[in-house]
Structures are given as C-alpha cells and as structure tokens.
Amino acid sequence: MKKILITGASGFLGWNLCRFARGAWDVFGVAFRNSFELRGARILLADLTRLDETRKLLREIQPDAVIHAAAAANLNFCQLSRSESHKINVEATDAIASLCAEHSVRFVFISTDIVFDGLKAPYREEDPVSPINAYGEQKAEAEWKVLGSNPEAVVCRMPLMFGEAGPVAKIFIQPMIQAMKEGREISLFTDEYRTPISGRDAAKGIFLALSKARGLLHLGGSERISRFDFGVLLRDVLKVPGAKLVPCLQQSITMPAPRPRDVSFDSTKARALGFAPGGIRQELRELFGAGMDVREKP
After folding, report:
1. How far apart are CA 256 and CA 258, in angstroms?
2. What is the pLDDT of residues 217-270, one digit of tens each?
C-alpha cells in the first residue's frame, strides 16, 4: 500500500483522518506530545517546528502523500501568543510544504473558514481572504506560502467540525453535552453562522481532494446554521428537552480574539468533484446511534 503521513494525529481532524485512511493506506500519524494507539496506524511523536525532525520523518517514512492537519487552532491562544502560534501555523507549514515539493510528495494543507471576515458570505474559493484575528491571519499566510512553494498542493478550507473526538482531543460539543445533562445554562450565539460538517464527512472530503483537486477547496457542510440553532439540534437528538440554551450575541461575551459572524461556505467546486456531506441532524443521529464518546474530558 502507499504510505500517508498525517500530522496533528492526536487532534480531532487528524484522528478522524487516520481512522478513515486505515486499510486503503499505510498510515503514519504524527502527534506532538500525546501518544495513543490506533489499530491500523502507527503513531509517532515529533516537534514539527524543528526542521531537523521534519526532515527525518520524511526521510525515514518516505510517504507518497502528506496531509498537514497539525495546528495551534485555539483562537484566543493565537491572539495572545502570536510568536509561538506563528511557528506552528506558518513556519512549520511552510517547511513541510517545501520539503514535499522538493521530493514530489503529494501535499494537502488543512486551513479554515476563519480566513474570512464574515461580512460577505457565502464564501467561494475565489473570494479574497480578510481575516480579523491572529489565527485567520496565520492560516491565510500559510495558504499563500504553501501554494507559492508547492503549486500542486491542495489547500482544504474546513468549517466548524463535530463528531467523535478520539482518545485525546476535545471538541466544542463535549462541554455542551455535559452541561445539558447537568442542567447548566449554555450561552450560544444567535448571530454567528457556519456550515458545519462531521469529522467523517471531513475525512471523506479531504481524501477526495487528495485524489482529485489542487489549489483552494472549500469543504463546507450542506447547511448554514447559527451556534444557537446547532445547540437546539443537538438537544433534540440527545432528547434533553429541559436543556437550558440561552441565546446571546457575540458582543455580549468579551474574548481576546474577535470572531467573524458568518463564514459559511459555498462548496460548489467540491460538490462537482463528488463531495456530498450529510445533513447535521442525520449526522448527529448516526454519531450517537453508533455509540459516540461524549466524555467531558479525554
């Protein structure tokens, strides 16, 4: 089988990618500090901000493809720790993309809807980036560097994602579920819109991009929805009618990093390639029906 190297393997998306690739690929997952076991994949530890370690990985594994999902993705951390997050989100990305180009290794970079300011949705690949926080700025810079050094690369911009988180990662629905079960109030924005996608569909879309695309590709879900309405769907699927969902506006909560209000995607280009994400309600039903792990902590 061909070899694939997936960075950020202990994160939500990386874990879903490693799990999806098993059987079709010889899977090598790379994590920074959190080692774990995943049948059908080999998980390695490495610091991708160290060029020597990155070179060693590629030399020893000699992958046929690399999906770079590792990132410092916490918006507030990036806003408050710009130098440290820049090393992870931009410098490491640039190094990996350049090495893959040098050795003719197929490369996919995972970016985000946060490269947009939220004022002109739905966003297409042709729309100019317009980030309003440090994370978005870093991802936009990384995109530019990747496509500059590796024109055959694919940049998959991802929306808000939900689903099984794996043994290490945390995702936003875990504390929501715990709060619902405990009867605590959950404040959710009514004025922040995304096009969410399940981790399973995200992995399908990324591997579709790996085989069929180059350049920028938006992998948004089939529905534009607010944070509050997503919470309502989750409450209904969990059958917790007494859940205390409190509608609020972005301006009512002060955070270090500003959030764009509407970064929903136009994913026409991906759909033309065969990308067909499921509806949110159905995805949630299938996830919970399959025994989704809803622990509050990893």
Report:
1. 7
2. 999 999 999 999 999 999 999 998 889 999 999 999 999 999 999 999 999 999
Residue 290 is predicted with a pLDDT of: 44
- Residue 33 — pLDDT band, cuts 50, 70, 90? confident
| Residue 67 in tokens | 């999906």
The CATH H-level superfamily of 3-163+196-224+264-279 is: NAD(P)-binding Rossmann-like Domain (3.40.50.720)
The span from the CA of 186 to the CA of 289, in Å, is 24
Spans of all domains in the chain: 3-163+196-224+264-279
What pLDDT score does 291 carry?
40
143, 94 contact by CB (below 8 A)? no
Cα maximum dimension of the chain: 57
Name every residue whose Cβ is closer than 8 Å to that of residue 6 and which is 6 or more positions away in sequence: 14, 17, 18, 21, 27, 28, 29, 30, 66, 67, 69
Closest by CA position to 289, among listed 160, 161, 164, 159: 164
| Secondary structure class of 144 (helix, strand, coil) | helix
Which DSSP helix (H) or strand (E) runs through 30? strand 26-31
pLDDT digits (tens, 9 = 90+) for 97-110: 999 999 999 999 99
